[in-house]
Specification:
The protein is an all-alpha fold. 73% of the residues lie in helices and 0% in strands. The chain is built from 12 helices and no strands. The chain is globular. The N and C termini lie far apart (39 Å). The mean pLDDT is 90.
Length: 305
């Protein structure tokens, strides 16, 4: 039974989802504002939110009938009968509560009882949980209306990186890593886009309208190249603008993303696209981690932590 739940949690998605908050913590550390407890709790909260999103996605796609026989990739737990719909819904409720509790502990550890910050971050935390639930669940899930890319960019990029950075009270908000946050969001959106390119035929048959379907096969592939290219440019602009040009060679770590994007653009085979989905996710997560380490090393914060 435990194996089924581990499979449903989709562990391969966790490195990318946590790399954004790690990057936010690294940027804060570069400003001398690192706090180990805040870092650990932010990573834990990100993990819980991602597992919640995966469970909600599994349950939501089942209820909307989009996990049909034509679906490519790992089988879903509910549609395959490995986990009952009732048990999965119960897991969604449990992880919603766990995510909320972890976020509350994180906020208290970060800024105590400051009412202004509590209000702002409580709203942000509630929006994050709602976004995880409403991607495929409910009567009008935004993932079925071409809005998934927008929300992934916001929550996996801007919220993950800038939100994590702002949780360190001593970190100057004027130096918030906006461009790396945008790059992180673009790379996460690229992961979703590969998934949607792979599933275009199944999504069309089940009435799941993704941005990839709206753009068409060629348009979605051009869009994918743009996501990766603009993401790298965001990083180049950030390193130049913050006096970290010496870290430019670190952008070579984006080469696996570029090679994967080339394969996605050229291939129509679903098995190849499924393999590139994994590679894009892993490569994006590793790139974020490498750049986090480089930023901390260049600032001297790596040794201080």
């Amino acid at each position: 039974m435990l194996t089924r739940w581990i499979k449903a949690a989709r562990l391969r998605t966790l490195p990318l989802s946590t790399s954004g908050v790690i990057l936010g913590g690294a940027a804060a550390a570069a400003e001398g504002a690192f706090r180990p407890a805040v870092f650990l709790l932010s990573v834990l909260t990100a993990l819980l939110l991602q597992v919640l999103s995966n469970f909600a996605n599994d349950y939501g796609d089942y209820t909307h009938g989009s996990d049909g026989a034509g679906r490519v990739g790992p089988s879903r737990a509910v549609s395959s009968g490995e986990i009952s719909p009732r048990a999965m819904f119960r897991a969604v409720v449990i992880f919603s509560c766990l995510s909320g509790l972890s976020a509350a502990l994180l906020f208290w550890t970060s800024f105590g009882l400051d009412p202004v910050r509590w209000g702002a971050f409580a709203a942000l935390g509630g929006a994050s949980i709602a976004a995880a639930l409403c991607y495929t669940m409910g009567r009008r899930p935004y993932g079925y209306n071409g809005l998934g890319d927008f929300f992934v960019f916001i929550f996996f990029g801007l919220v993950a990186v800038c939100g994590a950075y702002a949780l360190y009270p001593e970190a100057p908000l004027a130096r918030m890593p906006g461009l790396p946050a945008c790059a992180t969001g673009l790379f996460a959106t690229a992961v979703l886009n590969v998934n949607n390119i792979r599933d275009m035929e199944n999504d069309r048959a089940s009435g799941k309208e993704t941005l990839a379907l709206r753009l068409g096969a060629l348009g979605a592939r051009r869009y994918h190249l743009a996501l990766i290219g603009v993401g790298v440019l965001c990083w180049a602009a950030y390193l130049t603008g913050t006096g970290r040009s010496m870290l430019m060679p670190g952008l070579l770590a984006a080469l696996p993303l570029a090679l994967s994007a080339k394969t996605v653009f050229a291939s129509t085979r679903t098995d190849v696209l499924d393999a590139q989905l994994r590679r894009t996710s892993i490569s994006a997560g590793l790139f974020n981690l490498i750049m986090s380490v480089l930023i901390m090393w260049q600032s001297g914060a790596f040794w201080a932590c």
